[in-house]
Amino acid sequence: MTPILVSHPIFHTPRHTGRHPLAIRRVGALIDFLKALAWLPPDQYREGTAADRETLLAFHDVAYVDALMRANNPDIDQKVLREHFKIGTLDNPIYPDLFERTSLLVGNAIFAAELALQKRHVFFVPGGTHHGRPDRASGFCFTNDPVFTIRHWLDKGLQRIAYIDFDAHHGDGVEDAFTADPRVLCVSVHEKKRWPNSGLTHTPTALNFPVPKGFDDTGLNALLAHDILPALDHFSPEALFVMSGADALHGDPLCGLALSIPALRGALLEVLQRAPIGVIVGGGGYNPWNAVRHWAALWAALQGYSIPTSLPPAARAILEGLEAPRIPKARIAPEWLTRLD
Question: Which residues pair with 259 in a beta bridge?
Fold first, then answer.
């Protein structure tokens, strides 16, 4: 079946400001970019609704959900939010419509999971908040949409679900959520000595591959062939949740991996062949040019579109209009503005 792209207008404009790594246009720029290339037919774009409080409580603690709901109330004790729930810290600042955005993230993740049950691939671009904890925010993540997606599949009766994470940061929140559940296999390729400094060894339900700074296409292809694909074939998943990991690409301002867009896209496509049901999420990526180009090229591959050798003016204009507070204009590589690969 044809792939579906799931998003919501609330995710199309960044809510962070200043030098926060997420004070960049990513999802909205991708939507505009795909439309400029005529790659987003209306019938392949869907929007879900917000999760209600009861749904959020299936994973998150009552006190934490209540704190999220009240975070924008000017009368709430900011010190309690920071110290008890990590809300309002430098990593997890309070922004307008915080609860609306986080509940929409979960609601759209569950919507994507349901669509994928039709034996299709669903690209939920805004998703990938893999650090979120039951009782607190962590690493830019207030909720944990991968956990809700996987739990939805388990509730629907699936017995073998693989979570594959190519983000440069270890998917600690997801691994910990399913550490005692043999129905879920977590696989994470992440940069060694990079926050959250976890995922150093394998466990009975998780395969962790901490890789060194500078890890490149050759290393990824070897890891894929010798370890990841054989493990997936042995596990024989019924469904896949895949973090696309744009922060693993060369040129990310927060991370030190050196993958190319074609190599990472190829790895994602190899993994996605292992099950008919799949949700792919955007995940990290703090170089907006890389994120938009990587996600667009992945969507093209899912659709069976050819990658153009040159971009039309309307698509180039979107890339040329991007900014990132942590990437000086002098460091913007020419290829970031002119081609997908």
Answer: 249
User: What pLDDT, on the 0 to 100 scale, is given for residue 75?
Assistant: 86
CA atoms within 13 A on the CB side of 295: 35
CA pair distance 336, 340, nearest whole angstrom: 8
Q: Kindly state the average pLDDT of the residues 128-157.
A: 98
Helix (H) or strand (E) holding 169: none
CATH of the domain at 266: 3.40.800.20
What is the residue range of 273's domain? 4-47+100-338
Give domain status of residue 61, yes or no.
no
Q: Which residues contact 75 (CB under 8 A, 6 or more apart)?
A: none
Residue 225 CA: distances (Å) to CA of 220, 221, 222, 316, 328: 9, 6, 5, 35, 37
Residue-wise DSSP of 227-275: IIHHHHHHH--SEEEEE--GGGBTT-SS----B-HHHHHHHHHHHHTT-
Determine the 3-state secondary structure of 146 from DSSP: helix
Choice among 73-77, 118-122, 165-169 with the minimum mean pLDDT: 73-77
Strands of 121-124's sheet in order across? 45-46, 4-6, 121-124, 277-281, 239-243, 161-165, 184-191, 206-211
> Which amino acid, residue 5?
L
Nearest to 249 by CA among 280, 291, 281: 291
| CA distance linking residue 138 with residue 129, whole number of Å | 9
In a domain? residue 234: yes
Instruction: Tell me whether residue 194 is in a domain.
Output: yes
Give the span between the Cα atoms of 213 and 216, in whole angstroms: 9
Is residue 56 included in any domain, yes or no? Answer: no
Burial class of 236 by CB neighbour count within 10 A (0 to 12, 13 to 18, 19+): exposed
Q: Are 279 and 238 in contact, with CB atoms under 8 Å apart?
A: no
Q: In DSSP terms, which residues pair with 121 in a beta bridge?
A: 278
Helix (H, G, I), strand (E, B) or coil at 73: coil
pLDDT of residue 86: 98
pTM: 0.97
- Helices then strands (H, E): number in the chain? 13, 8
How many domains does the chain fold into?
1
The pLDDT value given to residue 164: 98
pLDDT at 221 > cutoff 90:
yes
